[in-house]
Amino acid sequence: MTVTAPGAAGATATSTTDLDAARAALRSRLLDDGVLVDLGSPGLYGRTGVFKRVYSAVDAAEVRIHEDLDAEVLRFPPVEPLTAFERTDYIASFPDLAASISGFTGDDRTHRALLAARERGERWESFLQPADLMLTPAVCHPVYGLLSGTLPVGGRTFDILGDSFRREPSLDPMRLQAFHMHEFVHVGTPESAKQHRDGRIPGMRALLESFGLEIDVVPANDPFFGRVGQMLARNQVEQALKFEFVTPVYGQDHPWTAIGSANLHEDHFGTSFAIHTADGGVAHSACVAFGLERVTIALFAAHGTDPDAWPRSVRAALAL
């Protein structure tokens, strides 16, 4: 595996205002040209036919390069039980990104009080009660609960596609609250997990470059919360647990944007979900993931909003 320094490392520093203007310009172009539909809340958009056409082509191309894994296909709903979510320990590291589901369980009197509050223009969500469900922040979460116990020799590998939700409203079209990840997850020994992570990076990079995108592979960290999170983030980078595929969506003078990742979880999920290898050790896991909306929007940013006018080589790589 070969990685390089972050793509923006040698770039000239520019102001946040310039970057915000670049983000606003891309957002306006996507909306004005009918690629996205504004739903009235930052980071939430409807997707039109042209978006779906490119999105589907991106996903199909990504699946093709992982066919050799012969992965088990799993698709999960966009919510997960609170009990399973708790075992991932996500709330400890990313409380600011998590979101729960609530429902109304009151009687007629409580309903009348809710309606009265609504009539007065007040917030009425306090009348709802937790439903013991969480919006899924990472599509691979549900798989680990299915693996508690002992894995077969060689471990198991999964093809997982689904909805993710992270509560981080933004007008940056590359940072959505609701989005889709396509992940290829391996659970097995420490050696097989690392091989899965490292072995997929060259092919993923080559694919993204075939789309006409400039790509760098850089060490990265997750957005851990708080002071303790700063230490976790440093450790993650120092131990080279996470790499991101980044591209200059907003130009060379701005920070490059991640559109995919390759992650080594070590024994985090193996310990949390009591998953063991055939030789009795605690299982390790790894995943490689594409942010489908991010790749798609990066293509519109790089090549324009009319796929039929894109370079022939790009359309061939996407089978458009």
From TrEMBL:
Transmembrane segments: none annotated. InterPro entries: aa-tRNA-synth_II, aa-tRNA-synth_II/BPL/LPL. SUPFAM superfamilies: Class II aaRS and biotin synthetases. Residues 162-307 form the Aminoacyl-transfer RNA synthetases class-II family profile domain. NCBIfam families: PRK07080.1. This is Seryl-tRNA synthetase.
